[in-house]
Amino acid sequence: MESGMEEIPVKVAVRIRPLLSKEVLHNHQVCVRLVPNTQQIIIGKDRAFTFDFVFGKNSTQEEVYTVCIKPLLVSLTEGYNATVFAYGQTGSGKTYTIGGGHIASVAEDEKGIIPRAIQELFQHISENRNIDFHVKVSYIEVYKEELRDLLELETSVKELHIREDEKGNTGRISALKFGVLCFSCVPKLFLASPEKAYSLLTLEIFRI
Ligand code: ADP
Ligand code: MG
């Protein structure tokens, strides 16, 4: 790092998904590749882009979790906040990677980030019986400009607003329900999630 440059707390990973069988069937071509031993990808013939992490088409869910998420989970249990979100065009693999689908029906090694993070969080809690943790959860869907509370589907869309604090920072969502999270209630939580939604799971963890 150059002197005087501050470390940027936002890190960006790119994951290339394999062609789907219907794409192979329609003779679609791969247009993006990794440059070996770098954090670069090349789109088309020669357009190179550099990221903090790159994952190729054969990368596993475990690899993505271990490299990008596990360090954040360690910090989380030490009291630091962390946010992970997936973005990209429809069909690029966000839901698959984040693991926000119906997790109860997904094979163990296909599980994405959310179920892995929750499992590890509760494992950490059970291994630290001398510390009392309290885990609060909220689960929202952002679709176009609207927010929906997936823990309280009756809350009308109009009641949910992102509020700014007095300094103009965007912060809390009004009227959002928080639940107390226990490990066994997690699969039920995900059944509330519609198939095609952008959803945001927030965990707040307190050491008491
Ligand atoms: P998005 O949520 O971005 O719209 P999806 O996660 O639904 O995209 O992915 C689109 C399709 O590609 C799904 O059928 C999904 O199972 C598949 N897919 C995505 N990423 C991968 C991957 N890394 N390996 C295998 N299949 C994948
Ligand atoms: Mg999706």
From TrEMBL:
<dbReference type="GO" id="GO:0051231">
    <property type="term" value="P:spindle elongation"/>
</dbReference>
<keyword id="KW-0206">Cytoskeleton</keyword>
<dbReference type="InterPro" id="IPR027640">
    <property type="entry name" value="Kinesin-like_fam"/>
</dbReference>
<feature type="domain" description="Kinesin motor">
    <location>
        <begin position="9"/>
        <end position="208"/>
    </location>
</feature>
<dbReference type="InterPro" id="IPR027417">
    <property type="entry name" value="P-loop_NTPase"/>
</dbReference>
<dbReference type="InterPro" id="IPR001752">
    <property type="entry name" value="Kinesin_motor_dom"/>
</dbReference>
<keyword id="KW-0505">Motor protein</keyword>
<keyword id="KW-0547">Nucleotide-binding</keyword>
<comment type="similarity">
    <text>Belongs to the TRAFAC class myosin-kinesin ATPase superfamily. Kinesin family.</text>
</comment>
<dbReference type="Pfam" id="PF00225">
    <property type="entry name" value="Kinesin"/>
</dbReference>
<protein>
    <recommendedName>
        <fullName>Kinesin motor domain-containing protein</fullName>
    </recommendedName>
</protein>
<feature type="binding site">
    <location>
        <begin position="88"/>
        <end position="95"/>
    </location>
    <ligand>
        <name>ATP</name>
    </ligand>
</feature>
<keyword id="KW-0963">Cytoplasm</keyword>
<dbReference type="GO" id="GO:0003777">
    <property type="term" value="F:microtubule motor activity"/>
</dbReference>
<keyword id="KW-0067">ATP-binding</keyword>
<dbReference type="GO" id="GO:0005524">
    <property type="term" value="F:ATP binding"/>
</dbReference>
<dbReference type="GO" id="GO:0005875">
    <property type="term" value="C:microtubule associated complex"/>
</dbReference>
<dbReference type="GO" id="GO:0008017">
    <property type="term" value="F:microtubule binding"/>
</dbReference>
<dbReference type="InterPro" id="IPR036961">
    <property type="entry name" value="Kinesin_motor_dom_sf"/>
</dbReference>
<dbReference type="GO" id="GO:0007052">
    <property type="term" value="P:mitotic spindle organization"/>
</dbReference>
<dbReference type="GO" id="GO:0007018">
    <property type="term" value="P:microtubule-based movement"/>
</dbReference>
